[in-house]
Structure formats: structure tokens, C-alpha cells
Specification:
The protein is of the alpha+beta class. It has 18 helices and twelve strands. The chain folds into three domains: about 35 residues, no CATH class; about 220 residues, Cytochrome Bc1 Complex, Chain A, domain 1, CATH 3.30.830.10; about 220 residues, Metalloenzyme, LuxS/M16 peptidase-like (Cytochrome Bc1 Complex, Chain A, domain 1, 2-Layer Sandwich), CATH 3.30.830.10. The protein is about 40% helix and about 15% strand. The termini are far apart. Belongs to the peptidase M16 family.
Length: about 525
């Protein structure tokens, strides 16, 4: 009613009145129009803004080690919800003595029936607490996490202990997991995006047949090999207290320690109360250090028809070229992260925006110059004892040789001089990404859990901000030169008739992509 009266009043006064109404010239304040007020000053006739007050309080992460070696870490945070979870030294790199794919199965079996709770009870509890749950595995870590109302922390810790230490893994659940894993494998082959498969392939090439090179995704031939006994054998030897961290954000530390003691220490795992569940033979945990090998993993595949709708998608050939990097505990890890931000990249049809990285090298030197390149993105995979720095690129199979030339050229150029503006932009973007990610409670939880699992403590964000600030161009050139001296890892997927030889790729990287006498009668870069 009010809005209609205002509209009729403005229309009666004419178009000039509309301008005055929108610009603030009309009204009872009797001041100059709002268009005359500088943006650096507050509008004098509007209510005074109330700003959040700054505080010098630093929320340090508290860590307590229980009698059985279990570590409990927490940090307070405002809000009515909390995130609680468990990080475990578990993952595909530890599956060397058992069929690969166990971690993939454990993801599917998470939050099922346990010794004292059914799946329906677990899900019903989360619904009452307004909570969610998740389980994700990586090559070196398995994380179970929940976000619930703070009042339900005790129930969340209880459920976590049940699903981690006392799962039933009933035969029908195993069958369902086998079907789910089979669907995952089919879905990976059908979906247009091949990032997951290429990540598997580049790790297999970089760490051939050892630790980080073992498959994270269950191979098809192992689906029927992984049974209840195999899973319990793995759990018995890898899900031990000394390999776990119970972490919480938005919780009281003493309360978290109390519930961890009650459910993770005083209540035994199911394989201790029923020793027949696991295989009798003793399984030693693999403590091998990751050995970088480099090499080539390729797969010929017809990707000409990957459309999931009526509009056809272009046929693409994918290539990933990787170099040996460092682990996240290495002194040069932050420098590698800065270099990764400087390279940047993305998709040619990806929308831009602040912080997107449109001035990174892979955008300015690659995507903006060559219309036929669909994707060029830099990644830095870091683990405790090793790392892999790589660039993933995609184009039509007819351009595969040209694409490889361009990517090797950009990798070689990492060893050259960079402008001060380019370096500072990468450092600021990395700092911004670090702080923005840590605004999310689940991200803070994972940061706490992973750091405490690796080092027994958590370094605050300011520590990494200072390390980023101290990175110089000489530091970047030093680590780039060292990476370029390593044997390259190459993963390729699609129609690969124009894929260059490994020897040619290696020579191109070492020579700075200068045209030299080819190793075969066919010039690689013609």
C-alpha cells in the first residue's frame, strides 16, 4: 500500500522527481544530495554504523595426549554449531600388503551398523541434532567428520567411536559397497571431466608401484577380493590410537577430552572383543618413504562421445606433466605454493572474477593466446614425505603435440626471472586464499586434524602468512630449477596418436624448450 502511494506520487511529479527521489535530493533531511557525499565519508543523515570490535584474543589450539596415545585437539569458535571428527594415518599408500581399494570401500561403509548402534539410529541422531556426517579418504589420511549443534558433541563423539572402532561390516553392507564402488568406476568412465582419473594416473607415473603411486580408486579386479576379513585385518592394524587424532572446533577442550577418553579409550574396538574377525597372521604397517620415479602412464580411449545431453561436447585429449616437488613439512613447501599460485590456470570457459587468477601465467600465456586449449591448470600435490607439481592441460587430439610443447615451455619458464608485480600478486592471492578458507569451521577442523596428525601441534595462520611474505624471486627460481632437473612424470588419456615421446619431453624441459636436433627422424615440435 505504502509503495503504491509513493509510486503514484513520483509519477505525478515527472521524470525529474524520479531522479531526485533515487539520488536522495528529496526528503526531510534537507542536506546536499547523496551523490555529493564522497565514498570515503559516511552519509551524515543515515543512522551511525555499528562496527564489530577488534580483539587481541588469540585462539590457540589445545592438544592433549591420552594414555593410549590418542591425541585430542580443539579450538574454540563462535556459533551454535561445532565440527568434530577423527583423522587417521590411513589411506591408499598403506595398502601395499593388501588389495588396493580398501580406503575406497571404507568410504562407502562409513556410518553403517555398529556394535551398539544401527545405521537408522545414527542417522536419526544426526537429524535431531541438525547435523551432517562425512567420510573422505586421501592417499595418506582417512577423515571421519560431523557437524552438529554444540549441545550434541557427546553424541557425535560416541557415533564417531562406533563407526571407526566398532563397525559391524555385515555381508549385505559389503555387497552394497561393492555395487557402489562398481557404479563409481562406471561413472568415472562416462563423465566428461577426467580430473580424478588423471590424478590417479599421474601419481602412478610419479611413484610407480610404491606408496603414493598405489591406486586410491579400487581397481575393478579387486572389487570381489575385498571381503569382511580383509577389511577388519586392515582396521585392526591401521586404526590404532597412536595413528589417530580426535579434533574439534567450537567445543570445550576438557569436555572433548572427557568424551574421547570414555568412547575411544575405555571402550575397546570390536576386533579386540572378537579376535576372529581379522586374519590371524600379523600385518606390519608399511612405513616406506615415498620414492619418486617419474615415467609415463597413458591410456588410449575414445572420448569423442562423452556428452550427457543433446549438445555434443568437444573431443579432448588430456595430458598431465609432473615434476618432483616436496612434502608439506619441507622448508620450501610454501615457496612451491607461491609458484603454484603464480602458474594458476583454469578452464577456457570458466567465468572470471576477483581472485580468479586471470593474470596467472597459464591464463595470460596459454588460455588467452591459444583458443583451441580448453584447460590448463597447475596443481601442487603435497604429502608428508614427497610432493608432485604438475600441469593438467586439454585440447583436441589433433593439437596434442602443440599442447605438449606449450606446457613444457611454461614449465621451463618457471626457472626464469619474474616481475615484482607478478610475484607479489601470487603471494597476496595465496594469503587471501589461506585466510578465506579458514573462515569455514570444517576447514579449520581439517587443518587442525592434519597438522596435529603430522607434527603433534598446529601452527597458526600468521606463521604461514609470514612465510609467504618472505618468499623471494630467487627462492622461486631455486625450487623451479631443482624440479626441472627431476625426471618428468607424464599421464595421457584419449586419442594419443600425436603424443610425443618421453625422451623428447624430457629434452624439451632440460633445454628450456629450445629447438634442438630431434632424437628421432620426426621432429617433436614441428
Amino acid at each position: 500500500m505504502f509503495s503504491s502511494r509513493v509510486t503514484r506520487s513520483v509519477l505525478r511529479r515527472g521524470s525529474n522527481a524520479v531522479v531526485r527521489f533515487c539520488s536522495g535530493e528529496s526528503g526531510s533531511h534537507g542536506k546536499s544530495p547523496i551523490t555529493k557525499v564522497p565514498l570515503s565519508e559516511a552519509v551524515p543523515w543515515l543512522p551511525k554504523a555499528v562496527y564489530a570490535s577488534s580483539s587481541d584474543i588469540v585462539h590457540e589450539t589445545k592438544v592433549t595426549t591420552l594414555e593410549n596415545g590418542l591425541r585430542v585437539a580443539s579450538e574454540p569458535k563462535f556459533g551454535n554449531f561445532c565440527t568434530v571428527g577423527v583423522a587417521i594415518d590411513s589411506g591408499s599408500r598403506f595398502e601395499v600388503a593388501l588389495p588396493s581399494g580398501i580406503s575406497h570401500f571404507l568410504e562407502k561403509l562409513a556410518y553403517g551398523n555398529t556394535q551398539h548402534m544401527t545405521r537408522e539410529t545414527i542417522m536419526g541422531t544426526f537429524e535431531k541434532l541438525g547435523g551432517i556426517c562425512d567420510c573422505q579418504s586421501s592417499r595418506d589420511t582417512l577423515i571421519y567428520a560431523t557437524s552438529v549443534e554444540a549441545r550434541g558433541m557427546a553424541e557425535a563423539v560416541k557415533i564417531l567411536s562406533e563407526v571407526i572402532l566398532r563397525p559391524q561390516l555385515q555381508p549385505e553392507e559389503i555387497t552394497d559397497a561393492q555395487m557402489s564402488v562398481t557404479f563409481d568406476l562406471e561413472d568415472l568412465q562416462l563423465r566428461p571431466e577426467k580430473d580424478v582419473l588423471l590424478t590417479e594416473m599421474i601419481h602412478a607415473a610419479g611413484f610407480r608401484d610404491n606408496t603414493l603411486g598405489l591406486p586410491k580408486i579400487c581397481p575393478p579386479e579387486n572389487i570381489t577380493k575385498i571381503d569382511r576379513s580383509t577389511l577388519f585385518t586392515y582396521l585392526k592394524h591401521h586404526h590404532t590410537p597412536k595413528r589417530m587424532v580426535v579434533a574439534g572446533v567450537g567445543v570445550e577442550h576438557d569436555a572433548l577430552v572427557e568424551f574421547a577418553q570414555k568412547y575411544f579409550v575405555e571402550m575397546p574396538p570390536i576386533w579386540e572383543t572378537d579376535p576372529t574377525l581379522a586374519n590371524i597372521h600379523r600385518l606390519s604397517v608399511d612405513h616406506s618413504v615415498a620414492q619418486y620415479t617419474g615415467g609415463l602412464v597413458k591410456e588410449e580411449a575414445d572420448l569423442s562421445d562423452v556428452s550427457i545431453g543433446p549438445n555434443p561436447l568437444p573431443e579432448l585429449a588430456h595430458i598431465v606433466i609432473g615434476l618432483e616437488s616436496v612434502g608439506h613439512q619441507h622448508k620450501d613447501f610454501v615457496t612451491h605454493c607461491v609458484l603454484n599460485m603464480m602458474m594458476g590456470g583454469g578452464g577456457s570457459f570458466s567465468a572470471g572474477g576477483p581472485g580468479k587468477g586471470m593474470y596467472t601465467r597459464l591464463y595470460t600465456n596459454v588460455l588467452n593466446r591459444y583458443h583451441w586449449i580448453h584447460n590448463a591448470t597447475a596443481y601442487n600435490h603435497a604429502y608428508e614425505d614427497a610432493g608432485l607439481f604438475c600441469i593438467h592441460a586439454s585440447a583436441h587430439p589433433s593439437h596434442l603435440a602443440d599442447l605438449t610443447q606449450i606446457i613444457t615451455r611454461e614449465l621451463s619458464a618457471m626457472n626464469g626471472r619474474m616481475s615484482k608485480e607478478e610475484l607479489e600478486r601470487a603471494k597476496v592471492q595465496l594469503q587471501s586464499m589461506l585466510l578465506m578458507n579458514l573462515e569455514s569451521r570444517p576447514v579449520v577442523f581439517e587443518d587442525i586434524a592434519r597438522q596435529v596428525l603430522a607434527t603433534g601441534k598446529r601452527l597458526q595462520p600468521q606463521h604461514f602468512m609470514d612465510l609467504i611474505k618472505r618468499v623471494t624471486d630467487d627462492d622461486v627460481m631455486k625450487i623451479a630449477g631443482k624440479m626441472l632437473r627431476s625426471r618428468p612424470s607424464v599421464a595421457a588419456l584419449g586419442t594419443l596418436k600425436r603424443l610425443p615421446r618421453m625422451a623428447d619431453i624430457n629434452v624439451a624441459l632440460l633445454s628450456g624448450n629450445r629447438l634442438i636436433k630431434p632424437l628421432s627422424k620426426f621432429a617433436f615440435f614441428q
